[in-house]
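Following up on my earlier thread - several people asked me to post the actual chain instead of describing it. Fair enough. Here it is, all 222 residues.
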Amino acid sequence: MFQKKRCSNSRLATRLAFFVAGFVTATWAVLVPYARANTGVNDATLGSLLLCLGIGALLTMPITGALTSRFGCRKGIIAALVLVILVLPLLAVLTQPILLGLALLLIGIGVGVNDCAMNIQAILVEKASTMPLMSGFHGLYSVGGIAGAGLMTLLLALGINVTVSISVIILCVVVLAVLSYPGLLTYANPKEGPAFAVPHGIVLLLGIICFSAFLTEGTVLD
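Reply from S.P.:
Thanks for posting it. Predicted structure:
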């Protein structure tokens, strides 16, 4: 009975982690016009600034596996969310392009760690289950995106100050993180494994496909 309840908690926590990831990412998409207006940059400079988010993610994704192996999925996910919610309010108020680029780099680092850590958790939870769960987990990322963009847009449409609106978003993230905390895994991959594995064969091919998909997704989002 205890083991069954533990598995159920882990599945719920994983669903919430994916939902929160989509929720936060969509919130930034709504803030892009504010970031551009505050900094007064042109399209070319804005594109370069937006690239900082991707750079931050690319820098941390390759090492997240080693980090979660040492500290566990829970610490990785929570630390990433803390970083994101601390920096998120700055995106709507920064007026210097270089500071905005730095903030986006930090957001990218948080997003990169969170995405990898929650996917490692998802793999482990699915392995411990008797049914396929991965598609449902990733589906909740999309649901979170719709919810985040919808809530942020609704708040702004009601005339609520952008800073207050972001505070509401952060409050939602904190509540969901607290609810997911007990079910987040305190372990990940075995520590005796390699810190970094060079992809080969089908893994490399899947990596190229994912890179292309994320490139397209990021272009449409931003």
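The two ends are 46 Å apart (CA to CA). That should answer part of your original question.
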